Input
Amino acid sequence: MDFSQFNDAERNHLQRVMEQKQMKDFLKLYSGLVERCFTDCVNDFTSKALTSKEEGCVQKCADKFLKHSERVGQRFAEANAEMMGGNK
Output
């Protein structure tokens, strides 16, 4: 996106809006990760601590979730680059 058409105040406002959107997206991703891994992995509520089985499950769940998110991001970037290259 070309921001050269905007004045400094408009560019600063757009930057703040984009940063807020990125933070919102990050928090949504993080909340989804926590909810999914907690739901899938935590079963024993008789103790404050996680069992070793629950800890291992949470670790695998988080790793899988983050690897998936990274892969989706890469594919999105590739598709975006292809679209941008096709428009030249």
Residues 52-86 form the longest helix (35 residues). The chain has a mean pLDDT of 90. The two ends are 14 Å apart (CA to CA).
